[in-house]
């Protein structure tokens, strides 16, 4: 499982377009025949102008968006086999998200009444970890990310953008999964917390996690990238 | 991924009212512990489908196959009325939109819970009362309300009592028809969070009918969208809400403020 250079993600001829039926059926192509691989221990940073489809690509890798064609193979942590998430059943995708793929978006989707500590601990509980161990680990991560302890027992609905983002990051990092997808995880953080996140990413990478990320901030990009992947906007193919 | 058998298998199910379609060509599998939401607008056939799945309405065509505890996968059409009633009060649960349809309003909260327990063979008064008290607290109703009738409860408490009454027998499948439709938004959150926790903790499969896509987002692993009695799209909840493929699903998703 922890061999470096093992391919964890293999994307082949991935195409994604949105057909907007409420807008007269206009078809917007976003990704066209994208192919790449990511090995264990790599941090691949997606480069490209705004609107090039970087976030769309990450969402396809998480099966939050449905690819139009092509395949996305990920190495299933439970079996070691490659599995195509474009053709996986919902049950299989839920299982892959539990064991194999973690995704940190820019925004936290708040669950009413659930405390910050429990939101962070949840991915570990889903893997069968003991509640008190999971909570301790969640507390350690929140402390590392400088989230004031008085906030830990509160639901994050009323927190600032930066506080919510740190909860999101802690939730994404608490369970060691072999694949991590990071969509601007440092967008609303100050310099100190940006440095903490850079450290977390580098540690995961060194431990063999395959990471694909989007980072607006050049300092973060340079600090974590082991490789760059250019994503070009698809031009004028719509009809 | 896990080699489990489906709990419920639905094949080409149809229910008609005269020449009007209630639902038709409905097929899906439900696995143990899965929360499935059926979404659609009023008149889309989602409540008819729920009642037909539960065999409280007899289908005109198709099959509902349930993995019975003692017999394994069984076509519900082959069960006697008595066996169906037994299934309804023990291994299945029903949470209704109107608490009056799901509770006995004139008997105490404790008796509402105890009645289901007695259906699975509990006879000892003291232990029934103890279990009822425990469940009352699990659904966040004060223990002092055990002997009060649900008529004196708020709407939110009544819905939580329905949950306790149903889950006390540890059903493997619970059907819910718009359980939050009559509740204030602030009360909805408490109900949904409680339901989410209990379903996961007890590994209960849930089929929940709702017109509220935010409820589906919060609770459901999978989502089925219905229109005119048929399934127009189904899949992973967040994928279906964030990247809907069917014109009707796109319209539905784009018509709500935030889901």
From TrEMBL, chain A:
<dbReference type="InterPro" id="IPR003593">
    <property type="entry name" value="AAA+_ATPase"/>
</dbReference>
<feature type="domain" description="ABC transporter">
    <location>
        <begin position="9"/>
        <end position="233"/>
    </location>
</feature>
<keyword id="KW-0472">Membrane</keyword>
<comment type="similarity">
    <text>Belongs to the ABC transporter superfamily.</text>
</comment>
<dbReference type="InterPro" id="IPR003439">
    <property type="entry name" value="ABC_transporter-like_ATP-bd"/>
</dbReference>
<keyword id="KW-0547">Nucleotide-binding</keyword>
<keyword id="KW-0067">ATP-binding</keyword>
<dbReference type="InterPro" id="IPR012701">
    <property type="entry name" value="CP_lyase_PhnL"/>
</dbReference>
<dbReference type="Pfam" id="PF00005">
    <property type="entry name" value="ABC_tran"/>
</dbReference>
<keyword id="KW-0456">Lyase</keyword>
<dbReference type="GO" id="GO:0016829">
    <property type="term" value="F:lyase activity"/>
</dbReference>
<protein>
    <submittedName>
        <fullName>Phosphonate C-P lyase system protein PhnL</fullName>
    </submittedName>
</protein>
<dbReference type="InterPro" id="IPR027417">
    <property type="entry name" value="P-loop_NTPase"/>
</dbReference>
<dbReference type="InterPro" id="IPR017871">
    <property type="entry name" value="ABC_transporter-like_CS"/>
</dbReference>
<keyword id="KW-1003">Cell membrane</keyword>
TrEMBL record, chain B:
<dbReference type="GO" id="GO:0016829">
    <property type="term" value="F:lyase activity"/>
</dbReference>
<keyword id="KW-0067">ATP-binding</keyword>
<dbReference type="InterPro" id="IPR003593">
    <property type="entry name" value="AAA+_ATPase"/>
</dbReference>
<protein>
    <submittedName>
        <fullName>Phosphonate C-P lyase system protein PhnK</fullName>
    </submittedName>
</protein>
<keyword id="KW-1003">Cell membrane</keyword>
<feature type="domain" description="ABC transporter">
    <location>
        <begin position="8"/>
        <end position="253"/>
    </location>
</feature>
<keyword id="KW-0472">Membrane</keyword>
<dbReference type="Pfam" id="PF00005">
    <property type="entry name" value="ABC_tran"/>
</dbReference>
<dbReference type="InterPro" id="IPR003439">
    <property type="entry name" value="ABC_transporter-like_ATP-bd"/>
</dbReference>
<dbReference type="InterPro" id="IPR012700">
    <property type="entry name" value="PhnK"/>
</dbReference>
<keyword id="KW-0456">Lyase</keyword>
<dbReference type="InterPro" id="IPR017871">
    <property type="entry name" value="ABC_transporter-like_CS"/>
</dbReference>
<keyword id="KW-0547">Nucleotide-binding</keyword>
<dbReference type="InterPro" id="IPR027417">
    <property type="entry name" value="P-loop_NTPase"/>
</dbReference>
């Amino acid at each position: 499982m922890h061999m470096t250079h093992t391919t964890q993600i293999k994307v082949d001829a991935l195409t994604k377009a949105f057909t907007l039926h409420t807008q007269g059926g206009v078809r917007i192509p976003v990704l066209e025949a994208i192919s790449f691989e990511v090995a264990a221990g790599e941090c691949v940073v997606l480069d490209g102008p705004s609107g090039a489809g970087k976030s769309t690509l990450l969402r396809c890798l998480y099966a939050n968006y449905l690819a139009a064609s092509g395949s996305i193979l990920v190495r299933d942590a439970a079996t070691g086999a490659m599995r195509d998430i474009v053709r996986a059943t919902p049950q299989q995708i839920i299982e892959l998200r539990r064991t194999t793929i973690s995704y940190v978006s820019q925004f936290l989707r708040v669950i009413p009444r659930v405390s910050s500590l429990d939101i962070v601990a949840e991915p570990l509980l889903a893997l069968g970890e003991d509640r008190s161990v999971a909570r301790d680990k969640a507390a350690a991560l929140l402390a590392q990310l400088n989230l004031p302890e008085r906030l830990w027992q509160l639901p994050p609905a009323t927190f600032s953008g930066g506080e919510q983002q740190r909860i999101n990051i802690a939730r994404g990092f608490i369970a060691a999964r072999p694949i991590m997808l990071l969509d601007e995880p440092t967008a609303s953080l100050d310099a100190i917390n940006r440095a903490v996140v850079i450290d977390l990413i580098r540690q995961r990478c060194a431990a063999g996690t395959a990471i694909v990320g989007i980072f607006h901030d050049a300092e973060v990009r340079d600090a974590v990238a082991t490789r760059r992947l250019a994503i070009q906007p698809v031009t004028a193919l719509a009809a | 991924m896990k080699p489990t058998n489906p709990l419920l298998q639905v094949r080409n199910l149809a229910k008609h009212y005269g020449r009007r379609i209630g639902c038709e060509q409905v097929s899906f599998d439900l696995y143990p512990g899965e929360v499935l939401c059926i979404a659609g607008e009023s008149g889309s056939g989602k409540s008819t489908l729920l009642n037909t799945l539960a065999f409280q309405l007899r289908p005109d065509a198709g099959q509902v196959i349930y993995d019975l505890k003692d017999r394994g996968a069984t076509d519900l059409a082959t069960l006697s009325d008595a066996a169906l009633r037994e299934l309804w009060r023990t291994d299945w649960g029903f949470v209704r939109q109107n608490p009056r349809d799901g509770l006995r309003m004139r008997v105490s909260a404790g008796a509402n819970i105890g009645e289901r327990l007695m259906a699975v063979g509990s006879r000892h008064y003291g232990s029934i009362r103890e279990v009822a008290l425990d469940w009352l607290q699990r659904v966040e109703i004060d223990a002092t309300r055990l002997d009060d009738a649900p008529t004196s409860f708020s709407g939110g408490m009544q819905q939580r009592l329905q949950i306790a009454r149903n889950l006390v027998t540890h059903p493997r499948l619970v059907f819910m028809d718009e359980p939050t439709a009559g509740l204030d938004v602030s009360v909805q959150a408490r109900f949904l969070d409680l339901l989410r926790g209990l379903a996961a903790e007890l590994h209960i499969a849930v089929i929940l009918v709702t017109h509220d896509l935010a409820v589906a987002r919060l609770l459901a692993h999978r989502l089925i969208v219905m229109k005119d009695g048929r399934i127009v799209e189904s899949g992973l909840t967040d994928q279906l809400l964030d990247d809907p493929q069917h014109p009707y699903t796109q319209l539905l998703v784009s018509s709500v403020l935030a889901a």
